[in-house]
Amino acid sequence: MKNSNLRGAGTVFRYTVQQHYKTRSVIIFLVVLFVIAVALLPAAALLSGSQKEVSETGIKTLYIRNETDFPIDTALLLADERYQAVRIEETDADDDTLNKRLAEESESAASVITMDAEEYHFSINTRYGKDSAVSHADAATLNNVMGDVLHKSLMQALGVTADQEDMIHAKTVSQVSKVSDFLRGEEETSADTHVFANIVYNYFIIMLCVISMSYIFQQCMEEKVSKLVEMLMVSVSPTALLLGKILAVTVFIFGGLGLIAVGFVISYQIAKQIADVSALQAVIVKLLQFDPTALHLNAGTLLLFIICVLLVYAMYAPLSGIAGSCCSKTEDTQHASLVVVVVMMLGYMIGSFAPMFESDAANVFFSLFPVTSIFSAFPNYVCGKISLPVLLLALVIQAVTAVLLMRIAGSVYKMMLLYRGGFPKPKQLIQMLKEYKASAKHGKEDSHAV
Amino acid sequence: MGFKVTDLFKKYGDKVVVDHLSFEMREPGVYALLGTNGAGKTTSIRMILNMLAKDGGTVEWNGGPLTLQTCNVGYLAEERGLYPKNTLMDQLMYFASLRGVPRAEAKQRINYWAERLEATEYLYPPQEGKRPVKPKKADQLSKGNQQKIQFMLSLLSDPELLILDEPLSGLDPVNTDLFKSIIHEEIGKGKYLIMSSHQMATIEEFCTDLTILNRSKTVLQGNLAEIKKGYGRINLFIKAEQELRPMIEAAGITILSSVGFSYQCKVSGEEQANGLLKNLVTQGIPLITFELREPSLHEIFVEKVGDTHEEQ
Hints:
The complex is a heterodimer of chains A (450) and B (312). Chain A has 17 helices and four strands. Chain A is of the alpha/beta class and 450 residues long. Chain A has two domains: 298 residues, no CATH class; 103 residues, D-Maltodextrin-Binding Protein, domain 2. In chain A, helix 10 packs across helix 16. The two termini of chain B are 39 Å apart. In chain B, the strands form three sheets. A six-stranded mixed beta sheet of chain B has the order 6-7-8-3-9-10, with helices on both faces.
C-alpha cells in the first residue's frame, strides 16, 4: 500500500471524530452512560444493605441478653480495639425494660441473641434508642462483630480448635479428568464456571460487534447518501477515507467503553466509601453461582483480554465495512446487518455452547477457527481448556484474518463507492470484484492508481 | 505539456461504455465533453480522475500520469451534495484541509469565495437581537445555495485543472450569470477547464475545443470555430413584412420552419442565399432581417447524435 494512498486519513479521522462529538444526542448518551456507570455500584451497595463498618464506636454501654444455651465470651468483643472502652452488661431484662433503658440512655445499645434449637438457627438483634447518639452504621458494625463473637464462643463451648474449624470448612474441589490430563497436572474448571465465563465474555463481544457494526454502516454510507463521494474522491483516496472512518469509529467505541470503565472505577471508589464492597462481591458471586477463583486469572490476563477485544474489533470492523460498503441507501442496511449478524451469531452460538462438548479437540478447534475463535479462545484460556501457546496461535490467526478482511474491505469500499444499485448478492459481488481487480491491474501497470 | 487523454476505454461485462476516447489540451482553455445521456461523459470524467478503474488508456498531466499528487484538480460533480447535518464552515474547512490548504489561508479563501458567490450570510449568519445565531447546516439551504457551497468546495484548492460536470443545472438566471462570471474569471487566470453540459449555449459561450460522444464513441472532435467553419454558413434567417414563401421556394431553398413572415431556412451555400437576396431587392420587397450564419452547436449536436439517439 502506497503512503500516498493514506494521505488525508488523519484529516478524515479528526473531522469524523469532531463531528461525532459535536452531536448533541451523542453527548447526552455518553453523559447518561457515565452517570449510570458511576451510580451503579453505590446504588447496588445501598440497596443490598451492605453498609461500611465504622472505625470508632459511640457506644458506651452494651447490654447483652443471651437466650442461647451457649455462653458468650465477651472478652472476644473487648479484644476488638473499637470496643475496649465499652461497658458490657449481661442482662435478663425483658424487651420492654431493655427498650426503656435504651430510650433513656443515648449512648447505649443492646444485642439480643436467640437460637432456634430445632433448625440450629441463631439470630442477633442489635438495637439502639430513638434519639440515640449511636448511629445505624455503628449498630450494624456491632451486629457484625457480635456475629463473629457468637461464632467463636460456640466453637470454644464445643471445644473446636481453630485448625479443626478450618478443616471443617475446607473446600472440596472435585475433578474428572483423563489419565493423560491428570499426569500433565492440568486442573479442570467446572463446566458451570466455563459456561458462565463464555456467556459473559461472548455477551460483551456481541455488544461490541453490534454497536460497532451500526457505526461502521453509517460511516460507510455517509458520503454515498449525502452525494459527496465524487467531490471527496479528488481530495482523498478511498483507502484513506475508509481508514480514517474506521479509526474514528474505534475512538467512538473504545472511548465509550473507556468512559464506562472510568465510571465503574469511580463507582467502586464511591461504593467503598459508603458500603462494605466485599459483602457486595460475595452477594454477586452467590447470585450468579460463579466461582471467580476457578478461573486462571493473573496479571497478564488483563493484557490478553485487551488484545483479544482489539482483535475482535479488528476482525468485525472490516467485515462490517464490506457489508456497509454494499449499501447505497438506508434500507440496504437490513441486508448488510443480516450478513454480519449471521456470521456473528454462528460464532456466538458455537462459542457459548462449546463448553458442553467437554472435548479438548473441540476446544482447540473452536479456539483456532476464526469465526468461533473470537468468542471461544479467551474464555477457553481463562478456564484452562487451552494452553497459552494455543491462545497465542489463535491470536495470530485472528490478526492475519483481520488483515485479509481489511484488504478486502478496502477494495470493496473503493469499488462500491460509486455503485448505486440494490444490495448485491454474493455471486454478483464476487463478479464485480473480479472485474474491478482486472481493471485495477491495468491501472497499476500505468501507475495511475490514486 | 498540458492535459492529454489517450485511448480511454471502459466496459461493464460485454457492454462498452467508453470506446477509446482521446483528446488533448495543449494550453489553458475550456474543453467541452458533450453527449446524450448515457454517452459516457461522466464515466470518462470518473476515469480521468481515477475514481473508476480504466480498462485501457492513459491520462497525462504535464507529461506524467495524472494523480492527486501530480495535479491540483477541482471537481464539481454532476451528482453533488453536502453533509446535511454538519455546518457549512466545518465542511469547507475539512475540504481545504484535505487539499493541504493551511488553516489561515483556507479561511481567507472561504471568505473570498463566500463574498464572491454571495453566500457570506450562510457562513456567518447575522445576529438576531441579542441571541447568537447558530451557523447554518447544509440541509437548511436551498438547492441553489447548496450548489454555491459545492462550487466553493471545488475552487478552494485554487486548482490548475477544473472539471465541471453540468455546473449550471438547477440555477436561477441570476445565479447562472454569477457562476458564468466566475468561470470566465477562472479561464482568465489561465486554468485548464473541462466542462460537460447539456446547455449548448453555455458550452458555446466558453469552450474552444470539444468532443461529442454518442453511445460511447467519439462522433465529432476538434476546435469549435473550425468545425463551424467546416459546415459553412448554411443557415438563413429572413424576416419580412409580407409573404415570401413562393420566392424562397422558387430559389430552391428549403424552409425548415416559419412563424408569420419569419423563415428559418437551409441553403446549399452563400451563392444560393445571395441569389435570393438579389431577387428580393430587385422586386423592392422590404426586409427586416436577412441573416446568413454558421450552424449553432445545438444544430451540430442534433445532427451528429440525433438520428442514433432516436434509435435508442
